[in-house]
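Dissemination and training. As part of the outreach component of the grant, students in the summer workshop were shown how a complex can be specified as a set of sequence lines and then modelled as a single object. The example used during the hands-on session is reproduced here so that future cohorts can follow it. Participants entered these lines:
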Amino acid sequence: MAGTARICSITNALAVVGERWSILALREIFFGQRRFDQIVAGTGASRDILATRLRTLVEAGVVTKELYEEHPPRYEYVLSESGEQIAPILLALMEWGNRYVTEGAPPTVFRHSCGAELHAETVCGHCRAPIRPGDSTVVRLGEVTPA
Amino acid sequence: MAGTARICSITNALAVVGERWSILALREIFFGQRRFDQIVAGTGASRDILATRLRTLVEAGVVTKELYEEHPPRYEYVLSESGEQIAPILLALMEWGNRYVTEGAPPTVFRHSCGAELHAETVCGHCRAPIRPGDSTVVRLGEVTPA
DNA sequence: GAGAGTCAGTTGGATTTCACAACTGACTTC
DNA sequence: GAAGTCAGTTGTGAAATCCAACTGACTCTC
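and obtained this result:
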């Protein structure tokens, strides 16, 4: 680090869900893949780091472990309330990836409860208009503080 | 890696903008901090990795370098079209961080062009309703493929 | 009831990346 | 001409990652 950093909720969010394998693990759980081996296969993470990432996600309260088999005791990973609320992050990443990185048709498709194919859009919570480049102005930036 | 991984636009997006210091650099540029030393100070990244991150972002076309001084030649970093479109990702991270990690008031505040304080919401592009946990169903998941 | 299979991790060792501080180079300002 | 600014680069030690193989607790099959 360079001695200073900005106080910002983006930094704070990344500290919890910002690691590569953490986000991918959350994606798999969001996709309904709840078990360790499924998450390994879906993310491509090595078992050891995935185990530590899941542990920190559980400690952070983003994910909970639920018993699905008694003998031997086995747990599956379920999104908590805060975990469910990462959907906007995942969907924003997916939309961006679809548009600017992935070639061809989107590999993953969701349907919204309204019946339409889901394409997430980000809107202003007040006026409900889509957010476009240049229509947001900074009122206050988090301070840049030493250490 | 574990030999397999899912084909998914989230993975693809993360390959381009998923590194910790990459997202934070994009945040700083989004916040209007366009110069190397400003980005160093705002992110807290060490100069060497930040330099390589910015280089890969430029190569990926997410950011461009624009000359702002001739003698000596100095460049500042500006979001390209695809770079501007990471706003939903940044705003989703910020909202989540505000809600679940940051203690106290949000450190960073934006105003939307409608006049209200900006709080991003993610909606279904078709019916415009906010996306809630459980109202999206999987139509197709990207394949899990070897290596 | 012995051997194979399933599942969720853990362990050990090589490799890669990262962090930090100091340095270069091209200039401008005092 | 000495000091300052700005954008990086370099070198080195510390830390994180990757991979494959292993453990442990069971169940299922022959």
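Residues 45-49, 69, 71-74 of chain B lie near DNA strand C (CB under 10 Å from a C1'). Students were then asked to discuss how this feature might be tested experimentally.
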